[in-house]
């Protein structure tokens, strides 16, 4: 005897494979689709303006990189194809600048991530009456113009006008006659220290926003189960902050890879501290070789794109699931 047609319909399992053997996934809700459309509409004007402002210089730089252009001989321009790239890529100075830039990026971003996480945890755990004061104090370095910050650090470590040597002469290796800008190692140390001091607040704010998205119930449940503070941090907080960590690392890595002001002010590339941005500036402005300088700039841009691609692949973050929508 057949079942009554008026009976309740069986519940559909969204994870049950369909006839083709694929799992049936729930479709995006109308609210999620409307939020996505609203986000696109809100971001579109800014995206169009940024694209209009940045696209022309990028295209023009690529066009210039295909020609031998010297401002000292503007009538002697010559199309050389990828000849400028061959010259740049065969120059040891370019590869030295590349490795120095990568070294600065890796060290500064790693240190900033650790310190930024600590500062974010302090601001997140602080009592409400102190949160505003802490956030303001931490943000002070980030509010200073980079050139001003670079000059301040330069004069602090300068052998003639600085005070670091006299204040820290008790530290092994530091003395009154130590010239921090006389060797590559100490020069890079000052450059990276100034960069870390200046931009750690930025990464701490991004991580603080990620901490606010971690469900407190998960932390409480882990503590009830006997987890230590380190286990809660490693197994609860960090996995739920993966998207925020990726954004923080990606933004800072791109910014650190394009470092210019600190190096230009402190050493101007002396003692093996030349970075890619400074090399492009010297080639284009110093030597007036627009074609070669544009080739360096294009290679710098392609390096930034490659860093973005590698970072996104390494983190493997699904941003749609991170925001909690389908």
UniProtKB/TrEMBL annotation:
<keyword id="KW-0813">Transport</keyword>
<keyword id="KW-1003">Cell membrane</keyword>
<comment type="similarity">
    <text>Belongs to the binding-protein-dependent transport system permease family.</text>
</comment>
<dbReference type="InterPro" id="IPR035906">
    <property type="entry name" value="MetI-like_sf"/>
</dbReference>
<feature type="transmembrane region" description="Helical">
    <location>
        <begin position="290"/>
        <end position="315"/>
    </location>
</feature>
<keyword id="KW-0472">Membrane</keyword>
<dbReference type="Pfam" id="PF00528">
    <property type="entry name" value="BPD_transp_1"/>
</dbReference>
<feature type="compositionally biased region" description="Basic and acidic residues">
    <location>
        <begin position="15"/>
        <end position="30"/>
    </location>
</feature>
<keyword id="KW-1133">Transmembrane helix</keyword>
<feature type="transmembrane region" description="Helical">
    <location>
        <begin position="38"/>
        <end position="59"/>
    </location>
</feature>
<feature type="transmembrane region" description="Helical">
    <location>
        <begin position="97"/>
        <end position="121"/>
    </location>
</feature>
<feature type="region of interest" description="Disordered">
    <location>
        <begin position="1"/>
        <end position="30"/>
    </location>
</feature>
<protein>
    <submittedName>
        <fullName>Sugar ABC transporter permease</fullName>
    </submittedName>
</protein>
<feature type="domain" description="ABC transmembrane type-1">
    <location>
        <begin position="98"/>
        <end position="311"/>
    </location>
</feature>
<feature type="transmembrane region" description="Helical">
    <location>
        <begin position="133"/>
        <end position="157"/>
    </location>
</feature>
<dbReference type="InterPro" id="IPR000515">
    <property type="entry name" value="MetI-like"/>
</dbReference>
<keyword id="KW-0812">Transmembrane</keyword>
């Amino acid at each position: 005897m057949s079942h009554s047609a008026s009976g309740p319909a069986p519940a559909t399992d969204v994870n049950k494979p369909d006839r083709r053997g694929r799992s049936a996934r729930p479709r995006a809700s109308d609210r999620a689709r409307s939020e996505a459309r609203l986000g696109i509409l809100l971001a579109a004007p800014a995206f169009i303006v940024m694209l209009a402002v940045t696209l022309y210089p990028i295209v023009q730089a690529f066009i210039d990189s295909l020609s031998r252009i010297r401002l000292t001989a503007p009538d002697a321009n010559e199309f050389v194809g990828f000849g400028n790239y061959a010259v740049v890529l065969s120059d040891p100075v370019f590869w030295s600048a590349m490795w120095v830039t990568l070294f600065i990026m890796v060290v500064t971003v790693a240190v900033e991530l650790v310190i930024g996480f600590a500062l974010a945890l302090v601001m997140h755990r602080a009592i409400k009456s102190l949160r505003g004061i802490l956030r303001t104090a931490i943000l002070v370095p980030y509010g200073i113009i980079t050139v001003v910050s670079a000059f301040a650090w330069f004069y602090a470590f300068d052998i003639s006008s600085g005070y670091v040597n006299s204040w820290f002469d008790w530290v092994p290796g530091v003395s009154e006659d130590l010239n921090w800008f006389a060797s590559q190692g100490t020069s890079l140390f000052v450059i990276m220290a100034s960069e870390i001091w200046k931009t750690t607040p930025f990464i701490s704010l991004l991580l603080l926003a990620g901490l606010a998205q971690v469900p407190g119930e998960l932390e409480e449940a882990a503590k009830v189960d006997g987890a230590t503070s380190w286990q809660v941090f490693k197994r609860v907080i960090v996995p739920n902050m993966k998207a925020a960590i990726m954004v923080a690392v990606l933004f800072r890595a791109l910014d650190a890879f394009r470092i210019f002001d600190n190096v230009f002010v402190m050493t101007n590339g002396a003692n093996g501290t030349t970075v890619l941005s400074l090399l492009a500036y010297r080639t284009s402005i110093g030597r007036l070789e627009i074609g070669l300088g544009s080739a360096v700039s294009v290679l710098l841009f392609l390096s930034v794109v490659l860093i973005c691609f590698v970072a996104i692949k390494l983190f493997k973050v699904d941003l749609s699931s991170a925001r909690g929508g389908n």
